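**User:** Once you have settled down, spend some time on the protein underneath, comparing sequence with structure tokens, and judge whether sequence predicts the tokens.
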Amino acid sequence: MAQNIAASRLQGTGAHALDLEGVGRQFGALSALSGINMRIAAGERRAVLGSNGAGKTTLFNTITGDFYPTSGRIRFFGEEITTLAAHERIRRGLRRTYQISQLFTNLTVRESVYLACRGVSRRRFSLFRPSPSDGAMAQAESIVHAVHMDDDADTLVGTLSHGQQRQLEIGLALAGAPRFILFDEPAAGLSPTERRDLIAILNALPHHIGYIIIEHDLDVALRVSEYVSMMHNGTVFTEGTPDEIENDPAVQQIYLGGGHG
């Protein structure tokens, strides 16, 4: 029964957050992605796993518009976005984080989240200071709480630990009511305690916000996803539930080095 709850969602009403058809990406003679077909339901939590060089980050970059695919098409909630600029995809509710933190170190946590909320609002070009009733400020306070940073709201970003900066990045991705988020290795460099906190944050996200997570830490990836796509050499070679993927001999051979304890 558990086998294909997520899969049935992909094949059900046709309400997909992301629909990739034959997506490929060439860099000269190098084929970084080839024939990627992937459907992800609205609200679904998907892990995309694979060894280094499998094409995971290239896949993210084509979805978010950092560069365009050289073949295939991408739809976001039914709208084709294959050649849309990255900022247009953001306006439609697509967000991402990056492997390397990209933060303003001289701002506080609260200021950073507020600017992210303001940046995707209709009043983003206003020069007036926020009032106590400013909707973006209220949203920022809610996000700071959601990523467990209430005690650090007035702390300068440059003084935060690596784990706290990762939490803040998730907060920035939540700005402006996103519909779907791509998380690129959010657990990289985290301590065991910080990993547990990350899992709690991701699992507590509103159910209408779907996401894809790229993650090398399987204990994190398999605990925050309901369906998994395994990549190898720029293609998706198998998919399944977390239990199916963890116990798949081919996955263990290619990704886990023969076993996973």
